[in-house]
Specification:
Layout (H helix, E strand, L loop, with lengths): L2 H13 L6 E8 L4 H14 L3 E8 L14 E4 L4 H8 L3 H9 L4 E3 L2 H4 L4 E5 L2 E2 L2 E2 L13 E4 L7 E4 L1 H5 L1 H9 L5 E5 L3 E4 L6 E4 L2 E8 L2 E8 L3
Parallel strand pairs: 1-2, 1-3, 3-4, 9-10
Antiparallel strand pairs: 5-8, 6-7, 10-13, 11-12, 13-14
């Protein structure tokens, strides 16, 4: 699942005169964040030669501008999505600039949700109606949509099959909070770039599109 990301990062590194890509791994945490970084350090190292660079940011503080200096790829990890949005928001413009210049971006969970132009930050109710499990609400009650990084023009929800968040995306689309979107299962990656969208991993990516009679839902799984 990480191969395409690492290949793009390596190509970016070579074009800059480095043989091994430097990958900024952004972790927003309420403790020390070391365990989360160590997990990604191990995963990326197993996928190929690279130099993961830890960017550990306490909840409520900004990701520093220096996090993106001399890196060949950006990985934004998972955790409490509202906290990631708050910490990464001051760097949205820099991330967009780097991605437009060819730097690959990988968002995991919260990092995927905030990559969208209209980000589903959390929540489990729309008005008085429950639309997903409270445990998936990210410490928010009302389904909350905020301006995201803007790397994708559709909303992204995550842990779709595992947390039941597909229904949140469906309800948000029906309510007009978003214009539709994609819900990604765990152990699954949606690859956006040149050419059509691709799916890799063990699960599916669910597409939700607004229609006259409500919404249309379809799924795409990885193909060998």
């Amino acid at each position: 699942m990480y191969r395409a990301f690492l290949e793009e990062a390596t190509a970016r590194a070579v074009s800059g005169g480095r043989s091994v890509p430097r990958i900024a791994v952004i972790v927003v945490h309420d403790g020390d964040g070391l365990d989360t970084f160590a997990r990604f350090d191990s995963i990326l190292g197993a996928a190929g030669p690279c130099e993961p660079v830890s960017v550990l940011v306490a909840e409520g503080t900004e990701v520093p501008q220096s996090a993106f200096a001399e890196v060949d790829a950006i990985l934004v990890a998972g955790g409490l999505t509202p906290a990631y949005l708050e910490s990464v928001r001051p760097r949205f413009g820099e991330i967009r600039r780097q991605v437009a210049d060819g730097t690959p971006y990988l968002g995991f969970s919260a990092g995927a949700a905030i990559a969208a132009e209209r980000a589903i930050v959390g929540g489990w109710k729309i008005g008085d109606v429950e639309v997903c499990a409270e445990e998936a609400g990210e410490e928010l009650e009302e389904v909350t949509i905020e301006e995201g990084i803007g790397l994708l023009d559709v909303a992204i929800d995550v842990h779709a099959a595992q947390w039941g968040t597909l229904t949140r995306l469906i309800a948000a689309t029906e309510a007009g909070l978003v214009d539709g979107g994609l819900a990604v299962d765990e152990s699954t990656v949606l690859i956006a770039g040149d050419g059509p969208l691709r799916v890799a991993g063990r699960g599916s990516v669910w597409t939700v599109i607004a229609a006259e009679s409500g919404v249309v839902v379809s799924s795409a799984a990885a193909r060998a």
